[in-house]
C-alpha cells in the first residue's frame, strides 16, 4: 500500500537558524521559507536527491506543532509522510485493521495541495504517520 | 555535502509486532530480521521505492537504543541517516563549523559495513543525524 517516503518533517523553534544549519553546515539545497497559514506552519524544504526534509516552524497561536515544541524546545522529528495512490482505499484498509485515523477520518487538503490523513502514533510505534495521495 | 536520505530509523519495543504493522497494516515490503550483535540491535528493513525505514529492536543489555526506549516505551523515530561521499571531509567541515561529532570523532563501521558518524542532536534541531559514506 505505502509507496515512496514523501518527506520527513522536523519541527524547529527557529526556522532561519535551522535552515542555515542545513545549508551551511550540512551543505544541502534549501528552499525559501513558505508560509502556510491554513496549516499553522512556515515550511522550508531541504531538497535531497531521493526525498525531502521539511523544516516546520510554528505560525500563529493555534499551530499544530506548538504542543510538540513545548515538549521538545530544541525541536525534533515530528512525522514521516508516505505516499499512497488512493487515500480512501488506504483509510478503509487501516480502519479495518483497527488503526486510528486522526480527526474526522476524512482526508484534508495538505500543505502540498493534495489529500492527506494522519494516523495515531500509538498505533505506529510512537511515530506520527501522514499519508498523502499522489 | 549531504546526498540521499539513506534511511529513517525507528526504535521499537517489539520488532515482530512492528514488522507486522508495516507489512499487514501499511502493506509495505519488509525484510527478515537481521541481528547485529556488534551494534546492539536487531534490524528489519522496510523497503520503500526511494529509501528505507529501519525498525530497530534492542539486542543485549548495552544496546545503544535502551535509553531511548526507556524514555519512549512505545518507540519513536530515533535518527535520520544522510549519505556523504567522503566522511572524513564531511567530519572536518562539521567540526570547523562547531558541530559536535559523537564518540571519538573517528568514523566507525556501521550496520551496513560502511563508515559512519553520528552528530550531536543539540546541534541539529533535536535530531540525531547519522552520516554514512557510500
From TrEMBL, chains A, B:
Keywords: Cobalt, Isomerase, Metal-binding. It comes from the Bacteria. Residues 4-134 form the VOC domain. One of its GO terms (biological process) is L-methylmalonyl-CoA metabolic process. It is an enzyme of class 5 (isomerase). This is methylmalonyl-CoA epimerase. The keyword Nucleus does not apply. It catalyses: (R)-methylmalonyl-CoA = (S)-methylmalonyl-CoA. Gene3D superfamilies: 2,3-Dihydroxybiphenyl 1,2-Dioxygenase, domain 1. GO terms for molecular function: metal ion binding; methylmalonyl-CoA epimerase activity.
Amino acid at each position: 500500500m505505502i509507496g515512496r517516503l514523501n518527506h520527513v518533517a522536523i519541527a524547529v523553534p527557529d526556522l532561519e537558524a535551522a535552515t542555515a544549519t542545513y545549508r551551511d553546515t550540512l551543505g544541502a539545497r534549501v528552499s525559501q521559507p513558505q508560509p502556510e497559514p491554513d496549516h499553522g506552519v512556515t515550511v522550508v524544504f531541504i531538497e535531497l536527491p531521493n526525498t525531502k526534509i521539511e523544516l516546520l516552524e510554528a505560525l500563529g497561536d493555534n499551530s499544530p506543532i506548538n504542543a510538540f515544541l513545548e515538549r521538545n524546545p530544541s525541536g525534533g522529528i515530528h512525522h514521516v509522510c508516505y505516499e499512497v495512490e488512493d487515500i480512501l482505499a488506504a483509510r478503509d484498509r487501516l480502519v479495518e485493521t483497527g488503526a486510528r485515523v486522526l480527526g474526522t477520518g476524512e482526508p484534508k487538503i495538505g500543505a502540498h495541495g493534495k489529500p492527506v490523513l494522519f494516523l495515531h502514533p500509538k498505533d505506529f510505534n510512537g511515530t506520527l504517520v501522514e499519508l498523502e495521495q499522489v
